[in-house]
Amino acid sequence: MTDRPATLVLSGGGAKGAFQVGAERVLREVHGFQWERVFGVSVGALNATLVAQQAYKELNDIWLNIRESDVYRRFPWAVIAIRIGLLRKLGLYDGTPLRDFILKNATGRPYVVPAHVGRVSLTSGLYELVSSDAKDFLDAVWQSATMPVIWEPIGSTYLVDGGLRNVTPLGDALEYGPTEIVVISCSSQKVEPAKAPNNILDVAVRALTDITINEILLNDVETFIRINDIVRQAYDEGVSLRRPDGTPYRYCRITVIEPAKPLGNTLDFSPEMIRMRMRHGEEMARSAMQPTGVGPGERAPQQPGPYSVPPLHA
To answer: How big is the chain by its Cα radius of gyration, in Å?
Structure first.
């Protein structure tokens, strides 16, 4: 195994973020990837933080032991009606437990490699990238992971999930001149089928996280791959393509690892589903690194491989 420097980009996906943990472990431990820099939005922001701290065991343990109550406080529908109708709350549930969870598990460790997370202001509509050297970085991680409607926006500028505008911050990563890029997505190329929604929460989760964010993700990745391939072809022909400011575009090898099967509900933190997602992340990372797997600018093949996440009742 040889060191292979690369920039890691982690997408959003709620509880599906366990997929990233399994995939990242195989890439690093089995195939020698050494992360130069880590970018993340939504749940990818949380994972990026621990990866940048090289707190790999802690990250694995977090996902093997995480519970819904660590992330948000659920209310009966009668209480939700009072919160929204009388108290003028802007979210169905209370997302503050996630802030405490992040501070508990990420405070006090240095960042061995730089981390960057994205958040969006509902008042300005703008996307903001926050780096790990910022004083409010862990608050930015929480803000990046705050799904609008499900939880309340944060602060005077109403900060929420960076995935609303930038599900995979590829453009951000390119600004730092990466050796190569690895994207670990929690969504496949196709929208997963789902049962008919039973309530407004089901509608919000389905519309925002499964359909809208999936479409943003596909557009982000497909656009990057297309432009990246054009740059490579032009270079092969001796032509240098340039940005409007005159800076030449640079080809960058990219590997996209994504699920080949449904990962379930975005808010399903059950131990069985978490372990399934981690195992499948390992499967798809191993598949991507096979000799017949992805080449430059391609996606991981959709086929399984071995895994090592312990069973629930081991």
So the answer is: 19
